[in-house]
Design goal:
OB fold (Dihydrolipoamide Acetyltransferase, E2P), elongated
């Protein structure tokens, strides 16, 4: 699982039929301080996340193991919206 910030949405009117009904989000990886640090990824949304939220996403074969993405050709899925995290007792993020 990877931490990321939802930075936008992706609309694709023409897509593989099994992907119909999925919402796609544009994510930017972040580091443990919440700073944008990595690349971008388009992920299917399994939890109803929105722009500016911090999320966790899974990729590869793990992305096809949610109820929303089972048996669909997904390579990334948002599977959690982050409420908070701390490192060594220090709160790094709180929603």
């Amino acid at each position: 699982m990877v931490l990321a910030k939802v930075v936008g949405t992706v609309v694709a009117t023409r897509k593989e039929a099994s992907m119909d009904g999925l919402k796609f989000l544009l994510l930017r990886q972040i580091d443990t301080d919440g700073k944008e640090s990595g690349g971008f990824v388009v992920a299917a949304d399994a939890v109803g996340a929105g722009v500016d939220e911090i999320v966790m996403y899974a990729s590869g074969s793990s992305a096809r193991q949610t109820v929303a993405t089972e048996n669909r050709p997904c390579d990334a899925v948002v599977m959690a919206i982050v409420d908070s995290w701390d490192i060594n007792g220090q709160v790094k993020y709180r929603k």
